[in-house]
Amino acid sequence: MSTATQPKISADVRERTGTRYASRTRAEGKLPAVIYGHKQDPVHIAVDAKAMVELLHHNAHLIDVDVAGKSEPCLVKDIQWDYLGKHIIHVDLARVNLSEEVDVEIEIELVGEAIGLKEAGALLEQNNNTIHVKCRADAIPERLTHDVSEMEIGNSLLVSGLTMPAGVTAASDPDLLIAHLSMTKIAEEEETVEGEDQPEIIGGKPEGEEKAEGEDK
């Protein structure tokens, strides 16, 4: 992400902190946040809630935060949600130099239609939606994309199989499972039933014997 396209947001300093004052801040349509790092004192701020949530929904990792006319690049380090997991209630921001290497969590987007999905009952399951990567602060990708068009039944996609943009390296375990293409249990059971031999009727007589008994003597 270049500095030219780096998103920006204005912030006001919060003079008072604590649960009660944070609730008041949110009631005013603002989101409590804190800026820390680089051996400087933490600064408690409030930003427009809708503006910040919009940035976060667009996978913004690096944000220029303007506090009292002074702008500095900050990395989104932590997002706190309410107990229902529906609303963001606090954001932690870390000061960064654009040239320093950072560790960030990036979303993985699978694109294309796997060839294996043409089989009835096939299912492509994405086991992990994000991984950690390392790169310069000014080169954080919005997301990672991977084409799954060639995946067939039984194929798995690991972190080691992802293609990284230039200057970006995976920090997660290379063997971490990202996606797997398999048959659903229902489909497997149906195939098993269809392939089974018809059960033998206990006590039944071979066709030849029944015919012999029915003939005139």
Give structural notes:
The strands form three sheets. This protein has a six-stranded mixed beta barrel. Strands 10-7-9-12 form a four-stranded mixed beta sheet, with no helix packed on it. It has two domains: 8-96, Ribosomal Protein L25, Chain P (Beta Barrel); 104-195, Ribosomal protein L25, C-terminal domain (RNA Polymerase Alpha Subunit, Chain A, domain 2), CATH 2.170.120. It is built from four helices and 13 strands. A hairpin with a 2-residue loop joins strand 2 and strand 3. With 217 residues, the protein is an alpha+beta fold. The longest helix is centred in the last third of the chain and has 11 residues, at 185-195. The N and C termini lie far apart (97 Å). The radius of gyration is 29 Å and the shape is elongated. Helix content is 17%, strand content 41%.
Specify the helix fraction band.
Answer: 10-25%
How many discrete structural domains? Answer: 2
Mean pLDDT rating: 86
Question: How would you sum up the major sheet?
Answer: 6 strands, mixed, barrel
Q: Which value, in Å, is the CA radius of gyration?
A: 29 Å
| CATH 2nd-level architecture of the largest domain | Beta Complex
Q: Can you tell me the residue ranges where pLDDT is under 50 for at least 5 consecutive residues?
A: 210-215
